[in-house]
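# nightly structure sweep
# worker-07 picked up a monomer target from the shared queue
# config: single-sequence mode, recycle default, output format = structure tokens
# input follows
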Amino acid sequence: MQKCLAMAVVCCLLMVLVPGRAAAAGPETSAKACVLMEMMTGEVLYASNSQEKRSVASTTKIMTALLTLESGDLDTQFPVDNDAIHVEGSSMGLQENDIVTRRALCYGMLLPSGNDAANAAAVSVAGSIPDFADRMNARAKEIGMTRTCFVTPSGLEAPGHGSSAYDMALLAREAMQNPDFRDICCQTEATVSFGDPPYERTLYNSNKLLKLCDGVIGIKTGFTDEAGRCLVSACERGGITLLCVTLGDPNDWQDHQRLYDYGFSLVSLTEPPLPENMTQTVVGGVETSVPLRAAQTVTVAARNGDASGISVRVLLPPFTYAPVSEGDVLGELVYVCQDREIASVPLLAAADAQMQPEQTAQSFWEKLLHRGNGK
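# output follows
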């Protein structure tokens, strides 16, 4: 509890420093707080009260599922903790002494929003719910969630538990980089095996937006009396992925669809300009340098196609020894937005660089070795 109170104080002090405070423009919503974000760059396209800490209900399970998937050992069977699964609210149907896997629990969290699944996973991963909450908050700090404190793995209300719409978008952005998470949260239904003994049964996703909105690929619903309706979703169209978070929104299905239509009208794919005349110094070659080219083209989604907020950094060693063949990987291009790496591609030699004639009979390395031996 003291940790949560301390975090709340820090959040207030940092409020003016955190990005993502885009002025509200575009369609009005019924949400108490919301944010629309482009996933790759993190650019906020729409926001309303996005930095306000609020109850987030079962969208909390995004973090619980992510930590569970990151813990590994996903398909080893084990008995559930009987105390953990006795919890109110939505359930995946766990009974005492059931045999499960962590992967099955993630399905149980992300589809039917099982509070029993979240608690069972927390105990499996960390040994206890309080220790798991500590891990949740540590991971939140890594992600940059400055207005968040997790107390329960399920999202059931507890003093201090909550987050902001902007922070939940950051969490969704991180979770969608996990292939297992992305694969699970996009499914409308799934066959999962658990029980005593385990047997197959079908779990259904509570996220109706998967069927209502073109391109939606997740993520998580939530509801408590205090939080109201909460929804974190992701939508992909034309190679662009947007994230939408609404908290306390009685019309969340409709608001997400309207926000996506608005957001996709703003952004388009573009190629950030690359540094000109990229070369690498070559030692021991006929030529003293070799031209470079990117291994592939990188496109980013930007408002009105303006990629001026994207910087491209060239990472190279001080020099490369000859010989060099066209296509050799010599370095890396790193694309950065808001001090965060959003993409990287190898830098390749665009031409050959032969060794100097006097070095063809005996390699540069052999000569260097002889010198090192005093010969």
